[in-house]
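User: Hi! I'm working on a homework problem where we have to compare a predicted structure to a textbook description. Could you give me the structure for the chain below?
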Amino acid sequence: MKTLTCDILVVGGGPGGSMAAKFCAQGGLDTLMIEKKAEIGAPLRCAEGVSKKWLDEVGIKPDPAWIRANMKGAIIKSPDGTSFQLDESKAGAEVGYVLERHLFDKALARDAVEAGARVMLRTSAIDVIRENGKIVGVKAVEMGDPIEIRCKCIVGADGYESQIGRWAGIDTNLKLNDIDSCLQYRMVNAEIAPDYCEFVIGDSVAPGGYLWIFPKGNGTANVGIGIIGTKAKNGAAKKYLDRFIANDKRFAHSQPLEVMGGFVSTCPGLDCAVADNIILVGDAARVIDPITGGGICHACRTGMYAGKVLTECAKTGDFSKKALMPYEKMWRDRMEDKLYRNWYAKERLATLDDDTINKLVELISTADIKEVNVYNLLKVVKEKFPKVVEGFEDLI
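Assistant: Happy to help. Predicted structure tokens:
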């Protein structure tokens, strides 16, 4: 059997994997990234919206090659049609870009390669290798042929399914209410605002989640929905999304040219995302915004943190769980409070009926908020509807 060796094996070629590979390679580590698909970034499994402010934090320069649309703001709607429009002066971090995601992912992978990482496509990990109880690599299939890849540490960047974490003994199980069922169409010939993202919330529209419209220019838009797992039965996501499109005149002459579906985790991260000789990043670590389902920035941050910590571990040759714990501290210090606050908010919003949602959106639309983000919105809600935030007031 063919055997490969490296210092760090990254499983998964998405943003988290590429960022981890880049920073490991920059740290002088022999880094190999494997991707089960034939192409980095495809097929699409993303709404493609990102905020702007975090890009500089992880060293990514905005590039017109992968920016499809530059948003001026956002529109939030309730079931009765009440809405409020935010421009960039108020929307703050919520304003961003709509990506051409497959080009964005390829750009990050290219950065990893330029830093010195190797990449193998059509290579699927099928199990970890243990010797004397210690993880020493993975069994994989490359272009149909079985291989072994030996390494000092594995970075699990294999997304929502996260097989690597499970094989390594990390509990990645999710409760049904911490899963969103998602469906998205790429619609063409749509009569929509070209530079405002739109979010529609309410139990009758998207139970426990929301519906989105992300413009991509020239009448094209990603139109999708995410609904809570406990209500995602018998193709519910498709039924809600199709009904919305059929009843919205802006799509009267529009057609979908692409459809994608999948699941998103909406919990506030794993109890621990490291074990001996393994570290999980991004969706594999369940580090994703529970209220929006957005995970690109979280994947990039955690990938960067993993690369930096692994570089330090390599100096002593110690990749034990204890040695990897600085990674846990880094991502939790940066994101954990926000993730838990948004998880509590997600849980509470899932219990509200349409009438309450209508009142909340009306309240927010008339509130004097200097910068609109989840934190500031919850502060307004806390003042007028304290029961909505009962149990997590200390996070607001």
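For your comparison, note the following. Residues 195 and 261 are 25 Å apart (CA to CA). The domain at 2-46+102-173+269-342 is CATH 3.50.50.60 (FAD/NAD(P)-binding domain). Good luck with the assignment!
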